[in-house]
Specification:
Length: about 180
């Protein structure tokens, strides 16, 4: 929450929307989640609307986990799903240049992304990556299943904002079949 002369007085001709974000005494709900370190610096870590609440009632910050996974050189992009579900799953876009180098070193000659992500050795490699990246995470934060995606999320498909953040609802709609498959018991 913030307050000050620089904060808007409300949305033009939208009193209901204004009521949702402004308190009566002028505090503005930003919707940001963050931490303040020992030196008093604020770091924004997530958006409240992006928090996933598992079926067990645990709050999970997908952007933090996605950021950790995206640091792996084999992962280009990742979208974590799990709102109102028993466990988290992920849509993973491989870093294809890195994956192709690795595949070549393993005598895997496939270059077509769609075929490459179906190769059992590639799937095994990503299982190992996910298992390793899950280790420091709490049980509810761990990715239980994943699906490799053969194309990047983009602004053109509506899956990314202009600042390249994931539009989770659109990604969920575009990859609904893959997500449903991961939740089949």
């Amino acid at each position: 929450m913030i307050r000050g002369p620089q904060v808007m007085k409300g949305y033009y001709n939208r009193p209901e929307d204004t009521e949702q974000v402004l308190t009566k005494d002028g505090w503005f709900y930003t919707g940001d989640i963050g931490t303040i370190d020992a030196d008093g610096y604020l770091t924004i870590t997530d958006r409240k609307k992006d928090i996933l609440i598992t079926a067990g009632g645990k709050n999970v910050s997908p952007q933090v986990i996605e950021g950790q996974f995206a640091m792996n050189p084999f992962i280009e992009q990742i979208a974590i799903v799990g709102d109102q579900k028993k466990y988290l799953v992920a849509l993973i876009v491989p870093c294809f240049p890195e994956l192709l180098k690795w595949a070549k070193s393993k005598n895997i000659d496939e270059t077509d992304p769609k075929k490459l992500i179906s190769n059992p050795e590639v799937v095994k490699k990503y299982n190992e990556i996910v298992d390793e990246l899950n280790k420091p995470l709490g049980r509810v934060e761990q990715i239980k299943r994943f699906s490799l995606i053969d194309r990047v999320f983009s602004q053109e498909t509506g899956e990314l904002t202009p600042t390249l953040k994931i539009k989770r609802k659109i990604v969920l709609a575009h990859f609904n079949n893959a997500i449903e498959e991961m939740y089949k018991e």
